[in-house]
Amino acid sequence: MTRRPLVGGNWKMHLLRADAVAYCDRIRAEAGDLPADAVLFPSAPLLALVARKLGGSSIACGGQDLHPEEKGAHTGDVSGPQLVDAGCEWVLCGHSERRQNHHESDELVERKALAAQQHGLKPLVCIGETAAERESGATFDVLDRQLDAALAGRPEPFALAYEPVWAIGTGATATPEIAQEAHAHIRETLADLTGAEAASTKRILYGGSVNPENAAELFAQPDLDGFLVGGASLDPERFLAIIRSCG
Ligand code: PGA
């Protein structure tokens, strides 16, 4: 089964409009010649600008989060229709920084993934264990619980990102063996939930301290279909190098 690689750039709470314009101009110039699908996840005030700058290219734009309801009194939140209106195709659901800093439950992640699908957005659902969970031998249980919950509403299409919390922003990238073991497990659980054929087509990205130096070795793992990149996505040259390592 060949799965076209997918690489996301999660800008988190970084970059201003002038940075985003220069970044998009640079990456757009290479967009016709990339071995993977690519999507940028800027913070909300930059979304419309980035989507416009990337419009008509092969590089998509996505939100970092969405509220499960389509409108209402939710100060500071962004709805699915607003993301679509800004030009987004994708949205992150359940990033560990949302789970930790905003106390997002598995059940809320499920509602977000479903809301994304209902509004025509593709959810990129993030799952991953903490260091304590890994040390206590609970990694697979945590992944199964998060997957089970996030997919309970059966969103389709969707993609997954395995992001061990201990590897995010720490420089402590998972070894290719650890990443492959987790990805293979996720694909097995996915097969139980959605059937073997559907699971074999799903893209499972790895995230956590990915950089141009470690990307190719990780990408060589059979169940790893691309990356969700944080820090290294802030520099278009490094982000492009990571995308090219999926060739
Ligand atoms: P990082 O972040 O590449 O800076 O570790 C990844 C992520 O949080 O998606």
Instruction: Indicate the overall shape.
Output: globular
Describe the main β-sheet briefly.
8 strands, parallel, barrel
Order of adjacent strands in the largest pleated sheet:
1-2-3-4-5-6-7-8
- CATH architecture title: Alpha-Beta Barrel
CATH superfamily: Aldolase class I
**CATH fold-level topology:** TIM Barrel
| Count, helices | 11
Share of β-strand residues:
5-15%
Count of all domains: 1
Record field, number of beta strands: 8
Describe this structure in words.
The structure is a single chain. The protein has helices at residues 17-28, 47-54, 80-86, 96-101, 106-118, 131-135, 139-150, 176-194, 196-201, 215-219, 236-244, and strands at residues 6-10, 37-41, 59-63, 90-93, 122-127, 159-162, 204-207, 226-229. With 247 residues, it is α/β, with parallel strands linked by helices. Helix 5 (106-118) runs parallel beside helix 7 (139-150) and helix 7 (139-150) crosses helix 8 (176-194). The longest helix has 19 residues, at 176-194. The two termini are 16 Å apart. 2-phosphoglycolic acid is lined by residues 10, 163, 168-169, 207-210, 228-232.
What features would you highlight for this structure?
247 residues; alpha/beta; TIM Barrel; 8 strands; globular; binds 2-phosphoglycolic acid
Detail the topology: elements first, then pairings.
Blueprint: E1 6-10, H1 17-28, E2 37-41, H2 47-54, E3 59-63, H3 80-86, E4 90-93, H4 96-101, H5 106-118, E5 122-127, H6 131-135, H7 139-150, E6 159-162, H8 176-194, H9 196-201, E7 204-207, H10 215-219, E8 226-229, H11 236-244
Parallel strand pairs: 1-2, 1-8, 2-3, 3-4, 4-5, 5-6, 6-7, 7-8
Helix pairs in contact: 1-2, 5-7, 7-8
